[in-house]
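Task: sequence design from structure.
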């Protein structure tokens, strides 16, 4: 048994969930297609979506994110793949959906990302941090968790340290409403002021999520 991918009206406090913090970039969803009537290639730009920092993987509104294991970058940009096929997360691998236990820790990740800005295009795309609910198979680590399923519970658009970009980010703010969770703005200084979240007590919260 598992949760349906369509979360309907938003995120509920499902039994066995763990909460952590994540970092995304926000990018507009672009669809490229061939227009047969004119014989040309076109593209259609959609709303902003949350995208993983370390790979080209979007988090869709009102759909639970499901982990899989591919050769990609993980927390602090280490290779995650251990070889062989397995379900994610796996104790012998670094795969899974990552979240850390505090905004202070997340700021360290944000700082690491900023230093790699030329590769990850930090100047082109706004950063979004958020509190996420994780369930299914959840493996705790030194600074947080990696999970089988996840979905945002609260989102914060990171304001630039150079000026106030609220007006520039208004379209992003409006598009993030599609996720059905609270959306606000935050500065790196405000991120430092948040307390740690309570750690998970068990390595595996549940083998299979129950149906809502």
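Answer:
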């Amino acid at each position: 048994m598992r949760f349906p991918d369509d979360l309907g009206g938003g995120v509920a406090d499902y039994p066995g969930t763990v909460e952590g913090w994540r970092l995304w970039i926000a990018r507009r969803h672009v669809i490229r297609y061939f227009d047969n009537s004119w014989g040309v290639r076109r593209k259609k730009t959609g709303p902003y979506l949350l995208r993983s920092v370390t790979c080209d993987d979007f988090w869709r509104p009102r759909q639970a994110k499901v982990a899989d294991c591919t050769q990609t970058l993980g927390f602090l940009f280490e290779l995650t793949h251990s070889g062989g096929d397995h379900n994610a997360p796996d104790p012998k691998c670094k795969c899974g959906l990552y979240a850390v236990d505090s905004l202070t820790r997340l700021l360290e990740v944000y700082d690491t990302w900023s230093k790699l800005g030329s590769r990850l295009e930090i100047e082109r795309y706004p950063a979004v941090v958020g509190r996420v609910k994780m369930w299914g198979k959840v493996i705790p680590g030194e600074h947080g968790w990696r999970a089988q399923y996840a979905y945002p519970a609260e989102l914060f658009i990171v304001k630039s340290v150079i000026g106030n970009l609220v007006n520039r980010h208004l379209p992003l703010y409006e598009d993030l409403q599609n996720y059905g969770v609270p959306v606000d703005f935050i500065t790196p200084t405000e991120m430092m002021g948040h307390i740690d979240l309570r750690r998970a007590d068990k390595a595996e919260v549940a083998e299979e999520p129950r149906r809502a």
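The longest helix spans residues 103-115.
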